[in-house]
Structure formats: structure tokens, C-alpha cells
Amino acid sequence: MVWNRIARTLRAGPLTEPAGAADEATAHALAERLHAASQARLGRSLAIRQVDAGSCNGCELEIHMLNSVVYDLERFGLHFVASPRHADVLLVTGPVTKSMHDALLRTHGATPDPKWVVAVGDCAIDGGVFKGSYAITGGTDSAVPVDLTIRGCPPSPAALLDGLRSLVEANGR
Amino acid sequence: MTAAEIIRAAPTTPCHPWPRHVLPGQSWQAMADALAADPLALLALWADAGHVHALFRDGADILPASTAIVGGAYPALSPHRPAAAWFERAIRDLWGHQAAGGTDSRPWLDHGKWGQTAPLSTRPAAASGAAEPPEFLPVEGEDIHQIPVGPVHAGIIEPGHFRFHAQGETVVRLEVRLGYLHKGTLALMRGKSPRAAARFAARLSGDSTVAHSIAFARAAEAATATDPPPRAHALRGVMAEIERIANHLGDCGAIVNDAAFPMLQARFTWHREAVLRATARAFGNRLMMDAVIPGGVAADITAEGPPAILAALAAIEAEHGELARLAEDTSSLVDRLVSTGTLSAALAARFAAGGVVGRAAGQPGDLRVAPGYPPYRTLDVRPALLTEGDVDARFRVRMAEITESIRLLRALLASLPDGPVSITLPMASAEGIGWAEGFRGDIWHWLRLDGGLIAAAFPRDPSWLHWPLLESAVRGNIVADFPLVNKSFNGSYSGVDL
Description:
The structure holds 2 protein chains of 2 kinds. By secondary structure, chain A is of the alpha/beta class. Helices cover 39% and strands 16% of the residues of chain A. Chain A has helices spanning 2-12, 24-37, 58-65, 98-110, 122-126, 157-172, and strands at residues 46-52, 78-80, 89-93, 96-97, 116-120, 136-138, 148-150. In chain A, helix 2 (24-37) packs across helix 6. The radius of gyration of chain A is 17 Å and the shape is globular. Chain B has 2 domains: 3-121, Beta Polymerase, domain 2 (2-Layer Sandwich); 189-460, Cytochrome-c3 Hydrogenase, chain B, CATH 1.10.645.10. Chain B is built from 16 helices and 15 strands. Chain B has helices at 3-9, 25-34, 84-95, 185-189, 194-201, 209-223, 230-258, 262-283, 305-329, 331-337, 345-350, 355-359, 391-414, 463-473, 482-489, 494-497, and strands at residues 12-13, 20-23, 41-47, 51-58, 61-68, 73-75, 98-100, 144-149, 161-167, 170-177, 292-293, 296-297, 431-437, 442-450, 453-460. In chain B, strand 6, helix 3 (84-95) and strand 7 (98-100) form a beta-alpha-beta unit.
């Protein structure tokens, strides 16, 4: 049965959706910031380490979809890695809880330079609905400097893809 | 007297739809002792400033029971209900009440980082609570080594710490330490109207945003004696079944992927994406965040919604049988799934485990067949039930539930009642309990309104009862199978960290 499916898949071609151009304005703005931040070029490939610093897991569900056949993140040179030591980008979700603050700092510290931080979702931008809670320190930038934000509750995979591709484009310039 | 008889003999205070029994201290102690020889199921344990509250299930009947805190303490339930231990630790961390005679007094949600202790008590103390590093249960034996994992994990997953004690490759003991995601949700809900607090219920666990929102809304509706319009009930049913299918597709994919069979996962995630896109067309948001509100639903389904949903369902149905057979016929997959992470029926019963975890281990509980849960009354829900209790059984229960939810969705969409989709809740000072069957299992919400605003609330995610069972199910398995067992349980971290 497996071989039948493989044969069918080969005949039908990939299911991955074609992608348009990356967001030019965002890429341009990012390129200037990245160049200022680092002289080192990583080429058009970025390794991503995802860190949930306090999310409700909604953002994680949509980030997961980037790895599905529909979006196929790796065709853009982007891939998720298992350790911050292998990463160029930290993809941070959620408000930063006080109990995750140290873990986020240490993850950031373990990521080699040059590195970029992307704050994903409304909570990661400024704490979102959890703003003012005794148990959080705020958005991602309350713990580590942020280079790019992607809004939404949660952001759709398409929005995530747009943001991350801007980062690759900017990095390649 | 049985524990249930002791509870029923106590005077009641109004709580809808079940009056809450307030037990004098000695009755609570007698009830706690009676639990030793009594199968009464403990569903939840929580507190407010002056009382500790328990929710029990006695057959088909639900029994809320409380006792006053005396001298900062209450008699513990954990000696005869191990599931109570995590609740008792959370109560101590959040409200400062001690469980006298409890089996575990280590901190739980409080990692010593809040700058205060007992944040939900009337007077939180400005001090740091628990000290790091946390204390883990000792393990003795030859060649035992520890493997600390987390809070930041290797995958795209919520943070938590897993402490393995292993002998060679075999897990001798797993301890799960959570609390990293504690966002202070209960404190944020207080003083808000149910409409405003619904945003927090929707974000207790993003994957169950619909189910938690429904359970919370039903608690507020019970307290205010409000019944949403029939169309709202039907649309909530539509949303809940979509959420179930989407999550089961994701979980089935995650399970086979952890058993190194990504080809099957590709198909599951393909269908999941189709369902989420149809959902966005129907309700304007892929996960239906904030779509359910107290009094009904936030907006009606769009005209293009039902055909989009039905098309996604038809595609799943057309391939479902083949995907199930592929899983059953692939020996490498069967080898990993069958007899891995086995949960015994006795333990599942003792922890009153609901949902997929319970139904894969012989526990037939499904709130959708319970009375008083529109819109399921007329739909004749047929829950899946298996007895093996292993990863394979949890996979197959999910597969069966996808099929059943497709049937329910078609029935719901074919007979959507006309009329409004919400009504306004009156201001009230009252208590209510709401419930919903989420994709993980039974969700319970309790709240007390004072002048229309939330004075106290507690949400019980099914994961409260599933996490301790995961600790048990993984024992004796090899460390490398832990991700597989963990995915098959799929406990919510955020849902219990509050």
C-alpha cells in the first residue's frame, strides 16, 4: 500500500503551494538593521529555534503548520533546529512568564552570534491580554532584544511565512 | 456512610445547576477517610479565599463539596485520591491553604519568581516562594542515572521539565514538573464581567479555545439562569466538533511522525490545514479564538462556511479508511505503537481520566452523552471505546472520533436552527458550573459572580488528571519511546499552569 501511495504522489506532483515574492518593504527595512547588527553573512539560509516563553499554545499550532506539505518551510532555506546552539533565529511566543524569563535568557545566551529574535503573536509583542499580570515580565523584549514582530492571535502560517521570508531576504543582501 | 452520602448530608449553598454542599470540618475529614473504600470520582479540587472546593462525580450525578479553611489548612484528599496531590500543591501556591496530611507538600506552580506568595489570597505576602533547584523524588538502585529535560524542549512544544530516572534505557521513574507557563490567569479574570473574562478562558489552552470558552460561558449562563438561543448552541457544537477533528488530525500526525513515519503525517496535516482554512471562511479565525462568548457566539457562521466545512470533511472521509489501514499494515509503525506506554484501566478509573486517554483504557466517559448538554441531546453521540490503554489505542480512538465528529458536523450543519446567535447576560450575584467535552476530554469551569463581576473562578482542564497518568504509563518503557507516549497523551501545559 505504501508503494501505491508513493507512485500516486510521484504522478500527482507536490502539494506545496507556490509562494509569491517576500514582503519587499519589510525585507528592505530588515536588511538595513541586520547589516548594522552584523557584518557576517549567513547566506540565504536560517536555522530557527522556537521558544515558548508563556504561550497558550495557539501560536505553536500555527508554527507547526509551517512544516506541513502545504507551506514546506525548508524550500526557503528555513528550518527548525533542536538546540539554540545550532540556531540563527529565536522564534519566541507568548508573554514572558517570570518562571520562563531565565530559561529564555539562557536560551538566548546559548545561541551563537550573529542571531536574531522574532517575537510571534500579540502576547509576544507586549504581553497581549496578560499585560499587567503579577506572573509575567511583558513581551519578548522584556527579556531579550527583538528584531522582528509578527502580529496575530495567533498569526496564520501565511503571516509567519511572510515574516520569516523577509528575514531570509534581508539576510541575503 | 459512603463519601457521597456524607457529602449529600451536608447543607447546601446555591450553585447552578448543582447545589454546593458545605461540609463542616469533621464531615470533610470523614469524607476524605471514606474515599479509601469508595470509588467516588474526584474531578477537581480548588479554593478561594476562605474555602476549599471539590468536584466529585457519583455515577451520573455531579457533587460539588466545600469546607472552610481553618487555621490556614484543610484535611487533604491526596492520601486516598492521588489525583488530588497536584491540586493541593497548586492550592497552597496560589491561595496559601495547606493540605493537612497531604502526600506531597513540594511547591508546584510557584517557582519562587513572582515576588510574592499566595497571589490569590486576600493578602499576598511580598516574598519569594519556592527556592530553586526543585526537589525530585529519590530513586534507589544499581546504575540509576538521571536525565533532565527542559523547560525548553527540542521540538515546537510547550515548556516543562521532565526528570527521568533511568536504568540503562529503561525509565524507572518520570516526574513532570510544570508551572513554567503560569500567567496569573485567575487573578486577571477576577473583577471582570464574564464577557471580558472570556478572553482568558479562550487562552487557557489555545488548542482547546472553543471547548474552554464553551465551558466557561456555560458556567456564566448557569449562574445567571440564561439559556442562549438554539442557533448559538448548534454553532457551538459545530465549532467544538471542528476543533476536535483538527486537533485529532494534528495528534495522529504527531504520533506517527514520532514513530518515524512522516508520509502519513503529511496527509494528516494536509487535511488539518484544509479544515482550518474552511474554519477561517466560516468563522473568520482559523482556531476560532474568541468565537464563543457568554450568552452565545460572537458572530453567525458565514454563508460560504457550511459548504467549505463539508468539502473539507468529504476529503477526510474519502481518505480516512486508507490512512487507517496504512497505519495498521505498516509493521514498523505497529511495532512502535502497540503495547507502548500502557495505562491500566484500574489506574485510569482511579484518576477519573476522561477523553482520549480514558476512552483508550476502558473508561466510557464522554460528556456529550450526558444530559443537559445542547446540542448533543438529539444527536445520539457514540463515543469510541478501547481497552488496551497503549499508544496504539489512543491513536485508534482519535481516528474513530474523527469519523464520529464528521457525522455530527453533517447533522448539525444540515439542521441549523434559525434565529439570533446570542443574548445578553443579566447582572447577577450567583455561582455556576459549566462543562464541555473538548478534544482532550471533560473540561469543567466554576465561577462565582458578585454584582455581575467575577469574584472567583477555576477552570479544570482534562490534563490535570492526564499528566500524572503519563508519569505512570511511561514507566518501564525505553527513554526513546517517551516522545511517542507523550504525544499520544498530549497533555496541555498551559491549561494546568494557569
